[in-house]
């Protein structure tokens, strides 16, 4: 892949600047973390600590699976820049490194690891150059590596509090738990600190929590509120459809999925979701052939959408097509191995008799 004359100077600049993570158009720079010799001797050098922290921030953003633009992240340093540019160009453009030198970095973090009498303290300071905000946080523990996650969570919350709320929602859903207390705590924070013109994201997520808790009416109220706050916001339209289906109102749900296809005609980001749930509602109302067509359309729209294959597997299982159902559940797991529901569905299908 040829990036032209900017490639060499950009990579050279990135080698000088440490580790960077990119949230949409806002780049986040991590300076090397100062560490005592006893920590460096265990392999946690200043570069390693900065890299681990940057990677953790990126991992939290990815696990959040938010449609909000800030989910775009990338990582570069003097050892991995060439690989990242060559293999993962979608996460990083070399010009970003030049922007850092030009003073276009939005967030800058630095810090130190200190050896105390019985444990360690990891302290990080940060600056939001655009908003003029600063942060100073610390965590204590017996081992340096166990301090990286809590500090990273605090940093992501500083960068964009919604990402932390979405992270807790997604990881709770992945585990199969119904305890969304962490998500709700973060959402309360979002409604205080997020800009007012972005809070519709948090309101929509509140609706999703209600939906997961088996409260579709409360969920619909939140989805309608989010839509009022942002009339062109497609997610609550789709989510209202799912809530309607949860109430057994499948024709109303299908009407919402059709609306999603109209609203999202340009980006088509919700097409696989709408087609999948449309298929679920068709199957629930005794129209299996039409349901199959919708699942096929969803696959054409996005063959990496894990929930499609889980729904398709349940559809086949209900038709006693156990072998085919197993294949679909496995496809779902291949795409989202962290989802407990998918693993359980495959386990049940594997133990079911084949007729």
UniProtKB/TrEMBL annotation:
PROSITE patterns: TPR
Organism: Azospirillum cavernae
TPR-type repeats, residues: 306-339
Protein name: Tetratricopeptide repeat protein
SUPFAM superfamilies: TPR-like (SSF48452)
Domain of life: Bacteria
Record key words, sorted: Repeat, TPR repeat
Transmembrane intervals: none
Entry-linked InterPro entries: TPR-like_helical_dom_sf, TPR_rpt, Ycf3
